[in-house]
Design goal:
This protein is of the alpha/beta class. The chain has 13 helices and 12 strands. Helix 8 links the parallel strand 5 and strand 6. Helix 11 packs parallel to helix 13. The structure holds pyridoxal-5'-phosphate. Pyridoxal-5'-phosphate binds next to helix 5.
Length: 396
């Protein structure tokens, strides 16, 4: 018999599976082109050409042991060195290969970090709305997730409530900008204030509080907005990066952690992250894709395609009367549900063959998330449904 914890997980996952099955069922009835699936953050834009070229160049005539074999737990040294110097160039940091641990995507990196840092009942603070999987990642290591309620005015973190929620058990604060699900980029001013609060509280409690910056959407920023590099603001910052969205490679499972020298208990954190990579069963990040990303550090997916989707969907929804702040990054719109019950609104949308996710999944009921990483035609074809939906619920 499976564990009681996994029994709960199986029951919850069946809801997500039900949504997926529903999409398939609708596609069979109405044709795939008439079902508008905005539920998943799966990139629709091709990886840059440089990725394919790198795969071909690396695999051509190489000694297979050197490309498909085990690597150090933290990854190939030359790959980590290339990543460190690329970050130094972009953000004027002073990192070396010793500050980089290659990971199995952002999800793998966060699990390695929580395994590294958390004792049972240690608290991890997150700001709602947040990526729902954080609940599982923290629970995997018997930590406790502490949620700061959303600031629905501009979706910057609610720092007043944050201050109140820091306790002697606070081990880490996990932030994500550009944000899933809002697309909001946390401003330099916000980050500065957050860092000041953390420094004060660390002193007050004589504790180490780690700031973890989950950055799979760092490169997906529009209108020349600057995404602050957090190690500049707070010493004990660890960055979790991923190539899943920046190079459209989510299935290849590749990313890295940046653990700067200034992080509290640096040497132990790095050693523990190496061991955690091994004992969680990752052993090392995928070897071929470590080599591929090292050759593609300056490559970019076609941001123009996402931007066109963003502009079209945002402007159209606003013109119909929906309320939504304009996202500056990632590929999500977080729209106020026109009726109080966001789950009910998603069910009504489904009747128009539009699949979207209730804000409840991100600890922010009353909103819905629309992932616009889809083909442009999907947006064009879905717009009449969005318009009709709002008209219908407004009449009720
Ligand atoms: N963090 C956030 C905020 C995400 O949205 C996602 C994926 O959608 C992840 C982490 C996991 O990303 P990865 O594919 O790199 O594991």
């Amino acid at each position: 018999m499976i564990s009681s914890e996994m029994r709960e997980q199986v029951e919850n996952s069946s809801l997500i599976r039900a949504m997926f099955e529903e999409g398939r069922r609708l596609a069979e009835i109405h044709g795939a082109e008439n079902v508008f699936d905005f539920s998943l953050g799966n990139p629709s834009v091709e990886p840059p050409v440089a990725v394919k070229e790198a795969i071909l160049a690396i695999t051509k005539g190489e000694d297979p042991k050197s490309i498909h074999g085990y690597t150090n737990n933290s990854g190939y040294e030359e790959v980590r060195a290339a990543i460190a110097s690329s970050i130094n160039e972009k953000f004027n940091t002073a990192l070396t290969q010793n500050n980089i641990v290659m990971t199995v995507g952002a999800a793998g990196g966060l699990n390695v970090l929580f395994k590294t840092l958390l004792n049972p009942k240690d608290e991890v603070i997150v700001f709602a709305p947040f990526f729902g999987e954080y609940r599982n990642y923290v629970r995997n290591y018997a930590g406790e997730l502490v949620v700061v309620s959303p600031n629905t005015v501009d979706f910057q973190p609610n720092l007043e409530e944050f201050k109140e929620k820091i306790t002697p058990r606070t081990k880490a604060v996990l932030i994500n900008s550009p944000n899933n699900p809002t697309g909001v980029v946390y401003s330099a001013e916000t980050v500065q204030k957050l860092a000041e609060i953390l420094n004060t509280k660390q002193k007050e409690f004589n504790s180490d509080i780690y700031l973890i910056s989950d950055e799979p959407y760092r490169e997906l920023a529009y209108d020349q907005v600057k995404v602050p590099y957090l190690t500049k603001y707070y010493a004990s910052t660890i960055v979790g990066y991923s190539f899943s969205k920046s190079l459209s490679l989510p299935g290849e499972r590749i990313g890295y952690l940046v653990i700067p020298d200034e992080v509290a208990d640096f040497a132990n954190v790095v050693s523990a992250a190496n061991i955690a990579t091994r004992i969680l069963g990752f052993v090392n990040a995928p070897s071929l894709f470590q080599l591929v990303v090292a050759k593609c550090l300056d490559a970019q997916v076609d941001l123009g395609a996402y931007n066109r989707n963003r502009e079209t969907l945002y402007n159209a929804l606003l013109s119909y009367g929906y309320q939504c702040i304009k996202p500056q990054g990632a590929f999500y719109l977080f729209v106020k549900s026109p009726i109080e019950d966001d789950v009910e609104f998603c069910n009504l949308a489904k009747k128009k063959n539009i699949l979207i996710v209730p804000g409840k999944s991100f600890a922010c009921p009353g909103y819905v998330r629309i992932a616009y990483c889809v083909a442009y035609q999907t947006i064009e074809r879905a717009l009449p449904g969005f318009k009709a939906l709002l008209q219908e619920v407004s009449k009720k």
